[in-house]
Every structure is written in structure tokens, then in C-alpha cells.
Specification:
This protein is of the alpha+beta class and 144 residues long. 25% of the residues lie in helices and 39% in strands. The chain has four helices and seven strands. Strands 1, 2, 3, 4, 5, 6 and 7 form a seven-stranded mixed β-sheet that branches. The two termini are 31 Å apart.
């Protein structure tokens, strides 16, 4: 697990390890008002839309933590590798699901203005839904 208290990624890492708790850091401490966010499921523009997306995405989460590896940073950009450990009421009966991914971030005035997450949506969602998950896992095993 990566720890470096001297960089601007600290608030980003702290935010994601506080979600979905009610005392979570205000998103405006990390993100610019006109944030552009993208992941395998959505493309969002604006802090209000991002707040709603996170609220909806975390509504059935039992727990979610991130282990962060060493980032790559240059000027106003960073890539932050992570391992998410998620327990969700509707996935795998609430058992832990692990997903590896990476966040690409662009900064302006110490706020994130662009955030794109790269991860395998099947690893997160499709493989962990009853029936559909069985089919996706079978396809993965036989496609190689």
C-alpha cells in the first residue's frame, strides 16, 4: 500500500476511503465545480451530477476501501493505481469483490478537473450478478 503525505493526491485517496460514510469529505474539497468524470458506466459533467452519481452508486454498499499503489505524476496530471475491496448488498451476496483499476486525473488549482477510471466492468459487476455472472465467467474461461 502506498503512503505519501506530501502530494495533492492525498485528499483524493482519503475521499475514496471515506465513501460511503455520511461524514465523507465534501466532494468540492477534491473536485472542481465543472469536473468531468468518466468510468466504464457513465460520463458526467459537473459537481452536482457527480455527487448524485456517487450517492446512487454507494446506496447499497456495505463497505468499500481502496489500497493505492504508487502514482505517476507529471505537471497537472496523475495516474493512481488502486485495488478496490467492495461489499455490496446486490453483488455476490454481500461478500467481498476485489477489482483492480487505475484513475487518470487532471488538476487545476489543486482540484481535480478531469477524472477517468479504468477497470474491468465484468470483474466488478457482470461476474457478480447471479446467472449473468455464471455465464460471464464461463465465457472468460472458454475464450482464452
Amino acid at each position: 500500500m502506498y503512503h505519501n503525505s506530501d502530494d495533492r493526491l492525498v485528499p483524493f485517496r482519503e475521499l475514496f476511503n471515506e465513501l460511503p460514510h455520511p461524514k465523507a469529505r465534501n466532494l468540492s474539497d477534491v473536485y472542481a465545480k465543472d469536473i468531468r468524470f468518466q468510468d466504464p458506466f457513465v460520463t458526467i459533467r459537473g459537481l452536482t451530477a457527480l455527487e448524485q452519481y456517487f450517492r446512487d452508486a454507494y446506496s447499497n454498499v456495505i463497505s468499500c476501501t481502496f489500497d493505492f499503489d504508487a502514482p505517476l505524476q507529471q505537471a497537472n496530471e496523475a495516474t493512481q493505481p488502486w485495488l478496490m475491496r467492495l461489499r455490496h448488498r446486490r453483488l455476490r451476496g454481500g461478500e467481498e469483490v476485489r477489482v483492480e483499476g487505475i484513475s487518470y486525473l487532471q488538476f487545476m488549482n489543486d482540484r481535480v478537473i478531469f477524472h477517468r477510471d479504468y477497470f474491468d466492468a465484468g470483474q466488478l459487476l457482470y461476474e457478480n450478478i447471479p446467472l449473468l455472472g455464471t455465464a460471464v465467467r464461463w465465457i472468460r474461461r472458454h475464450a482464452a
